[in-house]
Amino acid sequence: MSDPAAVRATLAQALQIVLPGRVQQFPPTTRRYASPTIFIEQVSITQADDLVVGTFPVWVVVDGTVEAQVAMADDLVWNAFLALWPLVDAIAAEPQSLAGLRATVLACAVSLEAVTMCGLPAATAATIPPVTLSG
Prior knowledge:
It is built from 2 helices and 6 strands; from the N terminus they run H-E-E-E-E-H-E-E. It is α+β, with helices and mostly antiparallel strands. Strands 1, 2, 3, 4, 5 and 6 form a 6-stranded mixed beta sheet that branches.
């Protein structure tokens, strides 16, 4: 895969089996989270040896009593891991705290492009998102 937008869509689609109807390709627009939820944050891009790698932070967010949060997080994180591992090169899960909710970030590394003697593809004009940008 080479297009971060296509990778994001593929990851979100794969996660639908884990939490049907509660997976978002993008973070929520407000800090109010409808828990449980899974969303994908902004990609970070690095070059490692001859590969350009995109790391997509997949957030798994749960609410409830401490015991319920931990049990649900364990189940969702494990199943998200199982859904994603065939699509990515590496996954690392790191528990987080998010506005009083329990969350885990699955850092999903995906090879976007191989760096060859010809170099990387030429840059093109960025696409304008199909949603309204607000300030």
